[in-house]
Amino acid sequence: MTDTATSPAAAPPEVRPKPERRVKPARILRRVALGLLSAAIGLGVWVALWRAGLNGFPSPLAVLERAGDMARSGVLFSDAAASLKRVLIGFALGSLLAIPCGFVLGWYPTIRTIFDPYLQFFRMVPPLAIIPLSIVLMGIGETPKIFIIFLAAFLSAVVATLQGVLSVDRTLINAARVLGAKDFTVFLRVVVPASTPFILVGMRIGLGASWATVVAAELIAAQAGLGYRMQQAQQFYDLPTIFVDLLAIGLIGLAMDRLILLAERRLTRWQERRAS
Amino acid sequence: MTGTQQQAKISFQKVRRVYDVGQGTFEALGGVDLDIADGEFVTVVGPSGCGKSTLMNICAGLETASSGTVTVDGVKVSGPSPQRGVIFQQYALFPWLTVRRNVEFGLRLANISRAERRERAEHFVDLVGLSGFIDAYPRTLSGGMKQRCAIARAYAVNPSILLMDEPFGALDALTRVSLQDQLLQTWSADRRTVMFITHDVDEAVYLARRVVVMGKQPGRIVDIIDVDLPYPRTEEVRLSPEFAQLRGDVWRAVYHQPPAEAQSRRHTA
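^ inputs. structure came back:
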């Protein structure tokens, strides 16, 4: 240890390269322009379909008007809140449980061998197919809906976490071991961070699956929610309302996906990425 | 093994490693004996599949021998230890940690105080010339810089042995030469025992005091060539006729190996 004790300590301060690249204004402008173009294309297709007189297809204006009505009466928000609440509870429970389960499955080959068939089995059964069963078992309250969402989120996150653990580079584990890390430290300091990108991808997929599932669950039995409202509107041929709810579902889903993507970018800044 | 000499730093005794391959077995190492003295710089060179990496991994404690033992300072190796620093060909930096955090990794595990960790990390990062990149993530570094960071990380825990597995194999020729010189410079200063695996004959001769040449099927030592060139090794040494002569000897030992049977007879004789 003499070589370190007697060494000159701090290196002279140097000018460091800035770690973050600043986005140029021209690029932002380009982004915005492409975004606007994207919206314009969507609107154009919609108008074209409406003009073609497709069986009662509503105009964008009619839908906007209905959205205004629904927002003013508050029904749009209460529906969205009801759906979101189910998704968030189911998703949070599912992901929270999936991460430790995925780690255990990935880390212990014996446990993996025992439980993997079940995992793959339930993965192949779409959550929607569980709805009849869960209604029979748990009634028509909130529990079966949240349970189905939980299942959708759990399955995608657990598989992703497991995959993450399995794909940890052996060399990194060896590098930690030769630096003095024992099993638990290897797990905590190598396996967990190395699997983080996989877990976040799993959560992203899980959130998408949860959101898709809640709407379907509400179609069957609910007193509020975006899916429920659509179901009601269907009985009255109320196409604008269906459109408003569809748009709300899509936009909320998109927003949630972007949020996770943002978290992913933050948490895995260290990853090698292809420049986009 | 030569009783009169001081105890070897690293001693391989009849180290065998056999892998099960499908129906049969593959003898990666067929009873290797080798002593490395304290402070010695030994390179191990041989064709791929001669078990040179396996030999090093057994010494590192990352693999176990099927039979035979490896002792370090007279103590049998039974697992990895920060005493034996390892440099991998693929750098093996933790991509989620900055250069500083990578270098501090082993120090953290050794429960070294924050202040001392900082100081030591800065010292070794400076030693390998990465001061300007101490807070950079590995992905922003070039191959040579990554390997320098890995070397700093290994040095930081102050191992008594450095095991290097083709550390410069993935680098371009110019970077390789400069890292070889830096490594020799550090070695000259601290005389830490180095076991250096390579497939590059030039590199093997340039760095080592002794070149161990291995052959395959089964993996074994076919020749040990002493390199009587003075340290510090410079470009002058690299371009000297003596160097060329030794390079030729090693080359012939690597590329014109007699078949395994004849060889093992000669060794047992």
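Chain A touches chain B through 36 residues (CB under 8 Å). Confidence is low (pLDDT under 50) at residues 1-19 of chain A.
thumbs up if we can close this ticket
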